[in-house]
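Checklist before submission:
- one chain only
- standard amino acids only
- sequence pasted in full

Submission:
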Amino acid sequence: MANALSTTLGFDGPSNLSMGARSFYLLAGLGLAAAGAKPRPNPLLSILAIAAGSYMAWSGYTGRCPAKAALFDNGYGQGSIGRA
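Returned file contents:
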């Protein structure tokens, strides 16, 4: 089940984050999620911060970022931004 879920979310395949990037994603994601956990006047912003922080932390943990892969790596070594 976890394998099917990770495939559906795009967290399968080889790692596309370096160790430094993984550390940054993990720490920044946990920090953003912790900041979103504080009570705020607008609960929607808290929910968005928790969701974005969780996504970043999970990307750092797995070493695979589907957003980065979509922008910079389309399977041929270049993504939509990486094209010359």
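Reviewer check: The mean pLDDT is 80.
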